[in-house]
Design brief:
Elements (H helix, E strand, L loop, with lengths): L21 E4 L6 E4 L13 H7 L13
Antiparallel strand pairs: 1-2
The protein binds zinc ion.
Zinc ion binds next to α1.
């Protein structure tokens, strides 16, 4: 019998980690919104979803569809 049973622990990553959301105010329309990063931590203006789309029409990073 082979002794080397590859008992590698399964790749168990959490399905979808809930990101912490930060309260922010849209720099364009002034609406309150939530962003997955700390507002102005990176010096970038924060936009609500609608405005964000205008400014970042296509972002490949987050592949989730729009929620509405
Ligand atoms: Zn806005």
């Amino acid at each position: 019998m082979a002794y080397g049973d590859n008992d590698r622990s399964r790749d168990r990553r959490p399905p979808r980690q809930q990101r912490e959301m930060f309260d922010a105010v849209c720099a364009d329309c002034g609406a309150a919104c939530k962003v997955p990063f700390k507002p102005s931590a990176n010096g970038k203006p924060v936009y609500c979803k609608d405005c964000y789309k205008k400014y970042a029409p296509e972002k490949k990073r987050d592949n989730r569809r729009s929620l509405f």
